[in-house]
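Good morning,

Attaching, inline, the backbone tokens for the sequence recovery test we're adding to the shared suite. The designed sequence is right after.
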């Protein structure tokens, strides 16, 4: 197969299945070589072979549990030493449908490690080099629960709200220096995510479940359009634009030396 234009190397976490696997395929077809990160070395090897067979692109495998601090730092060190990295897709994550105080606190801590700490540290590892080399892109997979925080487990929603806020702040700080940043907010997507949660997709209305290929294709289209926030399932894009405008306007009203009149005595 004829190789597409070389766009450098993309790092995809959670790349052994689901959204990560589709990202690997699409990015290879766009002209990226790949570094694939996930816990399952067998799954990564399968995806890497698929990429090679379909596109001729090289896909390196880096098996690691990003929720483990030692393994995460090993991945950071490997990536920080590379000079060819032009795209990072922070896709690895875990969720929960347990009630906020009904879950295992250790499981919630692991969720925070994977959903919050890992994308933060990997972004810290790659962003400075990208800026120094003249640009690159970081894609952070968040969720619609970043906004609709009541929909699922509260810790899960909080982690995805963090990812959205981190993305917006990263763009504010590093965007003028040439770094592109995108947060992707999927809704219900047809991946193994739901089986892991013990909540099969068959229990959900079919008209709210998006095909994973459609989801990733839409996310990459949003990246090409220069969107900071891409919500594939939101058809009324102007509603998000209005929401963001209202949020920014409201944030400018917070800084006052005196409390509001409603909080004053009498």
């Amino acid at each position: 197969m004829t190789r597409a234009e070389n766009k450098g190397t993309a790092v995809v976490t959670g790349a052994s299945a689901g959204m990560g696997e589709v990202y690997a395929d699409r990015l290879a077809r766009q002209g990226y070589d790949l570094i694939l990160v996930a816990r399952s070395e067998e799954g990564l090897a399968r995806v890497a072979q698929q990429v090679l067979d379909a596109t001729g692109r090289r896909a390196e495998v880096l098996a690691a549990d990003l929720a483990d601090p030692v393994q995460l730092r090993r991945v950071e060190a490997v990536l920080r030493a590379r000079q060819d990295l032009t795209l990072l897709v922070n896709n690895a994550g875990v969720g929960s449908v347990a009630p906020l105080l009904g879950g295992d606190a250790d499981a919630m801590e692991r969720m925070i490690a994977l959903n919050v700490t890992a994308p933060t540290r990997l972004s810290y590892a790659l962003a400075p080099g990208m800026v120094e080399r003249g640009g690159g892109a970081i894609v952070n997979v968040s969720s619609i629960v970043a906004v609709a925080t009541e929909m699922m487990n509260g810790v899960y929603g909080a982690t995805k709200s963090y990812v959205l806020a981190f993305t917006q702040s990263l763009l504010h700080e590093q965007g003028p220096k040439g770094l592109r940043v995108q947060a992707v907010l999927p809704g219900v997507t047809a991946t193994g995510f739901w089986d892991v949660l013990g909540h099969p997709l068959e229990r959900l209305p079919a008209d709210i479940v998006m095909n994973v290929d459609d989801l990733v294709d839409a996310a990459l289209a949003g990246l090409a359009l220069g969107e900071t926030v891409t919500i594939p399932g939101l058809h009324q894009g102007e509603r998000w634009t209005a929401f963001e405008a209202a949020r920014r306007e409201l944030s400018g009203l917070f800084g006052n030396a005196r409390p509001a009149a409603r909080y004053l005595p009498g």
